[in-house]
Give the backbone structure.
Amino acid sequence: MRSAIDSAGRLVIPKPIRDAMGLAPGAPIDVQFVDGRIEIEFEPSAIRADVSGALPVLVSDEALPPLTDDAIRRTLDAVRR
């Protein structure tokens, strides 16, 4: 898909790509220039290890969407292709 950069340096990410990534207005993203291409990823969530129980558990410092079976299946299908 084609897009353009405006005079203020802004880039419009086409809607099908935003939808596929689950990007919403105001979503924090990480933008990098790697090997001649621009990479856009979700900004990593701040997490901490809770070691108060028998096993350590990673806990996010921010509210995250629930992890569903469907999301896991879609991710597995995407990385297996």
About this structure: The longest helix spans residues 69-80. The two ends are 21 Å apart (CA to CA). Helices lie at 15-21, 69-80. The mean pLDDT is 89.
